[in-house]
Design goal:
Keywords: Isomerase. This is Chorismate mutase. One of its GO terms (molecular function) is chorismate mutase activity. With about 100 residues, this protein is mostly helical. It has one domain: Chorismate mutase (Chorismate Mutase Domain, subunit A, Up-down Bundle), CATH 1.20.59.10. It is about 85% helix and about 0% strand. The chain contains four helices and no strands. Helix 1 packs parallel to helix 4 and helix 3 packs antiparallel against helix 4. The radius of gyration is 19 Å and the shape is elongated. Bound molecules: the ligand C=C(O[C@@H]1C=C(C(=O)O)C=C[C@H]1O)C(=O)O. Ligand ISJ binds next to helix 1, helix 3 and helix 4.
C-alpha cells in the first residue's frame, strides 16, 4: 500500500503530466503548422534546426539541474516522431495544391 507521502508525490506527478501533455500538444500543433512553410520533403526534416533545438534544451536542462543527456534522448525521440507527422501534413498540403491546380 502506498504511504501518504507516495500518494502526494503521485498527485503532483499527475498534475505535472497534465501540464506537460498540454504543452506537448501545443508544440505538436506548431510543428504541423511549420509544414505549410516548407517547399519540399528535405525542408521538413531541417536537421540544422533540430541541432539548434537540442543544444537549446540541453542548456535549459543544465540550468535546471537535470541530466542534459536524458533531455536530449527524449527530445530526439519526440522530434523524430513529430517530423513523421509533419511529413504527412506536408504531403496532404502538396496534394491539395495539386488538386487545385488540376481544377478538381
Ligand atoms: C518545426 C519544424 O520542423 C521540424 C520539427 C522540429 C522540432 O520539432 O523542433 C525542428 C525542425 C524540423 O525537423 C521546423 O522546421 O522548425
Amino acid at each position: 500500500m502506498a504511504t501518504d507521502e507516495l500518494v502526494q508525490i503521485r498527485n503532483q506527478i499527475d498534475e505535472i503530466d497534465e501540464q506537460v501533455i498540454k504543452l506537448i500538444a501545443k508544440r505538436y500543433k506548431l510543428v504541423k503548422q511549420a509544414a505549410y512553410h516548407k517547399t519540399n520533403q528535405q525542408d521538413v526534416a531541417a536537421p540544422a534546426r533540430v541541432e539548434q533545438v537540442i543544444a537549446k534544451v540541453k542548456k535549459i536542462a543544465d540550468k535546471n539541474g537535470m541530466q542534459s543527456s536524458i533531455v536530449e534522448e527524449l527530445y530526439r525521440k519526440m522530434i523524430a516522431r513529430f517530423i513523421e507527422e509533419e511529413r504527412k501534413e506536408f504531403e496532404e498540403f502538396v496534394s491539395l495544391g495539386e488538386m487545385k491546380n488540376n481544377e478538381w
